[in-house]
Amino acid sequence: MSHEFVTDSVTGVQGINGSGKSTFLKMISGYLSPSEGSITYSINGKEIDRHSIYQYIAFAAPYTDIINEYDVWEMYAFHVKFKTMRLRMTVDEFVSLVKLDKTKGKQIQFYSSGMKQRLQLALAILTDSKLLLLDEPTSYLDEDNKAWYTDLLRHHTSDRTIIIASNDAKDFELCHQVIEL
């Protein structure tokens, strides 16, 4: 497959289970190397070394790890040590945004799958990254939280390339195009 992903675009990637959607995102992120072909990264026409691409990427997926021994305040503080956020906000503002106000002191390992998913999505979407990769972003979210996700993403699409891999048509609401694997 040959495709160019451009800034200010939201692209969906769909396909049957096992078609390679997650593998595709892992290759784009640099986590996996392609067995054939190549991936070229550039910003404003300047090529980016694939070993440096992590600086420009935010990634959220049900299988990506967060530090389970941390609480949400510690996780946010840890994240902002390595990544710049798109919005200036306090930890308490972030916690309120992800609707985890009532979890003070509770380790992430005791969160529900939906709570963990909201945390991962907010950290990725709010990271000031040129490339945002989302794999099955609403897999553990109920209907209210799917609306929360769509609203959050809608407000943070500018000046970045977003690729969403999913089989849920609702995940593609903001997509300009959808590619079939």
Please give the structural blueprint:
Blueprint: E1 9-14, H1 21-29, E2 41-43, E3 46-48, E4 57-60, H2 72-82, H3 91-97, H4 113-126, E5 131-135, H5 143-154, E6 161-165, E7 177-180
Parallel strand pairs: 1-6, 1-7, 4-5, 5-6
Antiparallel strand pairs: 2-3
Category from helices, strands and their pairing = alpha/beta
CATH C-level category: Alpha Beta
Multimeric state of these chains? single chain
Order of helices and strands: EHEEEHHHEHEE
Beta-sheet strand percentage? 15-25%
- Give a count of the beta strands, DSSP E runs of length 2 or more: 7
Low-confidence stretches: none
Percent helix: 25-40%
CATH architecture: 3-Layer(aba) Sandwich
Question: Rg, please?
Answer: 16 Å
- The spatial strand order of the largest sheet comes to 4-5-6-1-7
> What's the rounded overall pLDDT mean?
91
CATH superfamily, by name, is P-loop containing nucleotide triphosphate hydrolases
**Number of H- or I-type helical stretches:** 5
Distance between the termini: 9 Å
**Inertia-based shape:** globular
Q: Could you describe the largest sheet, including whether it forms a barrel?
A: 5 strands, parallel
CATH overall fold name:
Rossmann fold
